From TrEMBL:
Top-level division of the source organism's lineage: Eukaryota
UniProt name for this protein: F-box domain-containing protein
Region feature Disordered, mapped onto this chain: 116-144
Biased composition range(s): Acidic residues: 129-139
Species of provenance: Ephemerocybe angulata
Amino acid sequence: MAQPQATAVQHLPPEIVLAIVKAALEGLEYVRLLPWRRYNDEIRPQLNRLRRISRHWNNVITGCPTLWKDILLNLRRRDTTLALEAEYHRFRLCVERCNDLPRNLHLVSPGVQEGTVDYGSGSSVESISDTEDESDGDSEGSSVSDNLGYIERRGLASLILSFAKWGHIHVVLENYVTFAWDILCRQSYPHKTWEWLEVLTLESEEMIDIPESGRIHCSDIILVAENFPALRQVALNLTQYSVEPWNFLWGQLTKLTLENFVDRFRTYLNILGQCRVLEEFHLTVGEAYELWNEEPIVKPSPLAITLPYLRNLSLKIEVSSDIVGEFINRLTLPALERFILAYRQSSRRHRNDQDPFISPLLDLVRRSRCSLLHLSLESFLEVDEALFSQLLVSSPSLQCLLFAGVRTSLHFLDSISPISLPTFQRIEITNRGCDPDEEVINRFAKWANCWVKGAAPCISM
């Protein structure tokens, strides 16, 4: 009985085979958790095991472009010619199996530090999975050095640029930012490499010593609009670099994320002033920021920025709170629906330990006349209860409030409980650095259950 069953499995209809493959991939824990984990190295072995069931299964799986459109090229610890040839070969196979579908690339470690390169003398791949063919590799290309001593892995840039129809690109640069310049800043591309590109993510995973200048210098990254007509989302996380001289076609973006640059807030305002159609903006300013060199934003005249389509604004800040408040005061956001502010620098308290963000946020809501739906505030400072109440009164459409402050008092709860918010669905209040107060918890539960309709309010000490 075993043999007929095995034969039946080998000859299942293509749609059944693909359903089984989909279920097998979704069963991988890391694939479900994070979007980029689709590139996890578990996927390739799983696909290859399924392909070995029979020639029919192999033909169905390799002939399904959607299974191969997410391409991982992980070159970390791949420093020899032999290892590069194997990875480049698998890369080409995946691209070819995509047919005409837009494809996504997750590239890890495009450069290697000088002094650690070991280009072997071998010119062929000696051992590859029995489901993959051998390849001559791609050993051509230049080795361009940057100021951190990185050089390009041989032939990598030309390999990527030899294909078109990239939809999403995510590069973990590991501080080899020059590689981004190499692949993005050409005047023209023979195959229109980036014509389909919608999402571009560049990040550096490593923290390095800050140079005397306070920033790391890199060639200006200027994108040519004709080469990136479909680009709409850019995410840059490049610790200790300056975004000021770069241009990622800000004017056509709908979503922009900037993390861990050393620029002053005036630079971010200048960029936002070019973002005519921006819908989401996420800004993280961390320890690499040069607090002691900060200059006033208003120099010599005020910058007033109106972003008519911005719905989602997120600020995660570890620098002077006064500067952040001034930054907020320059914005008018009539379409704002979701605002997130996390101020996590507890060691640099504002004068009088009062949270300085409520007042500019209140002014922003009133000035913009927006219909705020989601408000998330996290600070190690005490909230001005009167201003916070005014903020809630000015936000009658609010559906979700997540508030994490230094303490929650009975007076604070009493100040906001009479406010009418008919659309409220969720409220969560968290204390920072205080012992639980049973009376506060009981009072919160009593009025919140009446205030929030159809949802479970939460208070955490």
